Amino acid sequence: MANNDETVIPLSSSDYYYDSYAHPSIHYEMLLDAPRTKTYRSYILSNPEIFKDATVLDVGSGTCILSMFCVMAGAKKVIAVDNSRICDLARNLVKDNGMSDKIEICQCKVEDLKLEENSVDIIISEWMGYFLLYENMLKSVIYARDRFLKQGGYVFPNRCVLYAFGFESEGRDRECGMWDDFEGLNFKRLGKMYSEEPEIDFVEVEKICTSCETIKRFDLMTLKMDQVSSFTARMKLSFSRASVLKAIGTYFEVGFTIGPKPIGFSTAPFVAQTHWKQTNFYLQKEGGIEGVKDDEVEVCWDVGVCEGNERDFEVNIECRWKESGAYSYKYVIN
Ligand SMILES: C[S@@+](CC[C@H](N)C(=O)[O-])C[C@H]1O[C@@H](n2cnc3c(N)ncnc32)[C@H](O)[C@@H]1O
Question: Which stretches make up the Methyltransferase domain (predicted)?
């Protein structure tokens, strides 16, 4: 965009982020993700005693689907906040469903929302990204909780757990190497960037060769702001059979555990697929990690937001096995 003196005002990464949510296609994908959308719907509509007459804040409301479920469950008022231009469409969708008197849409960041402090009974949000934390929207939900939620109110979903497992795989390690000499040219830099990117894809269940273990649990009612954007965790993956571990896959579970009808969904490889797929970290180690049944690999996770773009995450994975096996690599989710 050019202003009067012809200087160009560059778009920030934040502008690009909210622009990406202005397109209907991204919302199609989310709405049609049945485990995701049906779990929210089922929880809200099966627990009317929680939602009836409540004032709800929908953080990152998008098409207002969650706001509308809350009205269906008897909410008195919903404040729907989203900083994307999707709000224009949402306003019409809300009108088409006769809910304009109950849902107030505010197009702004929740951090800039003008709303009385401690005034909402419930905060609902679908903030989860790849590797659970990518996009760092959890920070905005915790901000909203600390500012706007009444004493004794609820945040939904109220629990999330991030898991890891090891798997065998062919291919990606070779793909990284091929850039060393690409059509007679040195494209190593591209290969390095590729090796640092986790893959977002479905893992075939037969390829899983270790136990699945918890990386970290998140209780959204008690989580502190300084625990949102960085953490370290240690775990042991145990080989379930003799195999060569080539990559560490991750998935998460989301829980709505308050009230008479708790429910949840998972993004694991062994349940119905979701648009989050799995987030997979390929080991940049020739030959992978060989093991026999019950051998253990100790994995240390060091996770934090990237400097310069707080929506992206750096994930350092350190593995130790047998007496002297050691591996460490830094990945970037962007
Ligand atoms: C994953 S989408 C969920 C949309 C909708 N709630 C649903 O379930 O279909 C997240 C939305 O949150 C919005 N968002 C992210 N961070 C935000 C913030 N700090 N303030 C306001 N909106 C935000 C994005 O623009 C996006 O539309």
Answer: 56-153
Domain 159-334: CATH superfamily is Hnrnp arginine n-methyltransferase1 (2.70.160.11)
Q: Return the closest-CA partner of residue 129 out of 317, 313, 273, 300.
A: 313
Distances in Å between the Cα of 302 and the Cα atoms of 51, 295, 332 are: 38, 23, 12
Catalytic-labelled residue, pool 111, 116, 126, 206: 126
Whether 21 lines ligand 1, by a CB cut-off of 6 Å, is: yes
CA of residue 15 to ligand 1 center, whole Å = 13
The predicted-structure confidence for 276-294, as pLDDT tens digits, reads as follows 999 999 998 888 999 999 9
Report the distance separating Cα 71 and Cα 94, nearest Å. Answer: 10
The residue whose CB lies within 8 Å of the most ligand 1 atoms, and thus the one to mutate among 61, 66, 125, is: 61
In the chain, what's the furthest Cα-to-Cα distance?
69
Q: What is the pTM of this model?
A: 0.94
Backbone region of residue 196 per phi and psi (left: phi > 0; alpha: psi in -120 to 50; beta: other values): alpha
pLDDT at 14 over 90: no
Percent of the chain at pLDDT exceeding 70: 94
Q: Which atom of ligand 1 is nearest to the CA of 127?
A: 1
223-258: per-residue pLDDT in tens? 999 999 899 999 999 999 999 999 999 999 999 999
Q: Where are the domains of the chain?
A: 12-126, 159-334
Is 175 catalytic? The answer is no
Give the domain 12-126 fold. Answer: Rossmann fold (3.40.50)
pLDDT level of residue 3 (50, 70, 90 thresholds): very low
In this prediction, residue 159 carries a pLDDT of 98
| Å from CA of 135 to ligand 1 middle | 10
Q: Is 197 a catalytic residue?
A: no
Atom of ligand 1 nearest to the CA of 125: 6
Checking DSSP bridges between strand 309-321 and strand 296-306, what pairing results, if any? antiparallel
- Specify the residue with its C-alpha closest to ligand 1, atom 24: 60
Query: Ligand 1 mean position to 179 CA, how many Å?
Result: 37
